[in-house]
Amino acid sequence: MSESKKREIKVMRYGIILAVLLSASYFLFFEEPIVESRLTYTLSADEYARYSDLPNEVIQLENGEAYLSPNYESISDTLQAKGVRRFELKKFLKGRGENDVINEIYFKDQSKLEVPELIKELDFGKSKPVGKTVGIALLIIILSLLFDRFLNGSVQWIK
Amino acid sequence: MSLLNKLNIILPIYLMIVLVDSLLMPPVDFISISNFIFPFALILVTVIYRKERTFWIIAGIVALNVLARLLINYWHGGINTQEVIWSVRWVKLFTVAWSTYYVFQNHRALISKSLIVAFSALALINIFQLMEIDFFLDLYDTGDGSVALIRNNLLDSRVFGSFLNPNNNGFVMALFGLYFLISDQKYKYHWMAVAFVLLIMTQSRTALVAFVAAVFLWSVFAVFRNNRRQLLIFLGIGLVLGIMLIQFKFMNLSSLFDGTAFNSNSVDTRLEMIANTIEVNSESVWTGQGKVNDIPSLIGGSIDNEYAFVYLEYGLIGILIYLIMLLVLIIGSLKSQKGSGALLILIIAGVMGFTNLSFGNLETAPILMILFTAGLFYPLNRSVEKTIE
Predict the structure, then answer these.
(1) Which of A138, B20, B256, B294 is the most interior residue, by most CB within 10 Å?
(2) pTM
(3) B248: distance to nearest CA of chain A, Å?
(4) Tens digit of pLDDT for each residue in A73-84?
(5) Is the dihedral of CA B87, B92, B97, B102 positive or negative?
(6) ipTM score of complex
């Protein structure tokens, strides 16, 4: 195996090792888990119109952060005939935060609405976002691939 | 060196500008310097390939396509400048393809390395967006809320790169992934893996399905016939994909596997738009509506389907010419190298066409033509791994 071939292999090998180590460290030690749940609210058909256009919102809490996203599609309209309507909030919580506090901020403070009756909370478990972890890994791999080309002197552009 | 040989340098320059326009410029508008060089590039490729029968066959089909579109527009109340430009874009794609062909024939190292550099730059834009670096989010912000979603969503949102939406980004990643797979680039599997991971991060369902379909076909040609090591690599990638989908909650992609994607608002809306298109064209089945400037007001929403789009504007005549063009491209890709990788690029474009625009997409069509033409130079059933270094 030639000297240049040995160097080529090392650039990528060290690059991949570095990418795995750094991205895994970031994922394990710095990326915070997000708890995902769905909150189902009920209210009368008369009130529903005021709640049917709630925004996606990030709420800063004392010990965390919550992202709330309303979901109207998956809730059946069969109760409408009885004068009852329902909607969901997808809740993504980083850190800690009580529903009462989140509801107070989301409905009362930001949308100037009364907090509707919460009838169900479904837990969808914990997970971590991977965007930054993937970003770190790919950045190192791309730079390794580019460095490999330059270090191995293959910069002849026009045949 | 003759004057023609000296002038030929325009073609690589034209191609570089098209690459920069297509992959790196913010999606603000479609006016670019490449449009000013395009007529010169067209004249040059015509002079260079004037004795090639294939050149004139494809030129004839492109001319037929443009002429039919202009006549249909004329039929529907006259032609304006916008309609001429819209129809002439096929000539631009033709020029991009033949310029790529010329550069691949004569400066292969240049185009191979340019594609690497252009892809690297696009990948870096995506990577910096994943890392939520404000400059790269704001620079490519399309104003439709994608940036707010990335910033606010605590779990992973859909990365859009330098394009108007994540689906276009996923489409281009799928094209590059396939290009690396069939190419003779050094470390091609590493490059392909980068494109594939970024495709996952766009969470474009159709791009993923298109990519998997094309890789499956490639495996039929290449892996089972020649190389078990490659099969193991792809099984490994499949495993990683499965773990990512389950563990990291890519909602948009996971919906492909639990069936909700096929019973979703997204699919229902697209089917409704196709039904509306058929209804709108019920009295002009053959000639469609001509160039439509405001599709939502005509059919009630965005069309998001290449074939319905062609049918809406140019009716069955447009579809017929479109199919002839596809047939010629398929025959060309099968004849080249006794079966070239370009066929896989076409499969990706074909599948993407069901939920997005492919050839009709101003953002992605030039890069589609460049990678299709590049694919003509690589055999589909490469048995020995080679690199260009």
Answers:
(1) A138
(2) 0.87
(3) 6
(4) 555 556 666 677
(5) positive
(6) 0.86
